[in-house]
Structure to design on (131 residues):
């Protein structure tokens, strides 16, 4: 069964750092771009970052550029999101998702499910940044 499991969230003061992990299983990880998205209650999910299947290209939402870094370890089927300089507005539930490699991370913020055909999202990991 294909699965993505997010972890690493927590409570941190503004200016602090967290590193999120997304562990994949049940599918060939290296065939997919991996996306991090976040959702604040009452708001739509938004794309945060995307990394192509081979790790050669990274894309970031404007508000996190220079602060967040996405990376992946295909041998471990895991993608990471290093978050530095956290701000209260980064408070959200963070989710990971996959995108077929041929999309090249285009429109990654519009994903509607974590895995193609699943119709659902994982549990996500809560990030709370206090001021």
């Amino acid at each position: 069964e294909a699965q993505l499991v997010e972890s690493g969230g927590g409570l941190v003061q503004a200016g602090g750092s967290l590193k999120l992990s997304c562990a994949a299983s049940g599918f060939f990880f290296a065939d997919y771009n991996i996306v991090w998205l976040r959702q604040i209650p009452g708001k739509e999910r938004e794309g945060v970052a995307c990394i192509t299947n081979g790790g050669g290209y990274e894309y970031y939402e404007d508000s996190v550029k220079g602060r967040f870094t996405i990376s992946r370890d295909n041998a471990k089927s895991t993608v990471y999101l290093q978050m530095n300089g956290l701000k209260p507005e980064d408070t959200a539930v963070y989710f990971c998702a996959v995108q077929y490699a041929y999309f090249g991370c285009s429109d990654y913020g519009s994903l509607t499910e974590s895995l193609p055909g699943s119709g659902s999202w994982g549990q996500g990991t809560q990030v709370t940044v206090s001021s």
User: Anything to note?
Assistant: The CA atoms of residues 5 and 67 lie 23 Å apart. The chain has a mean pLDDT of 96.
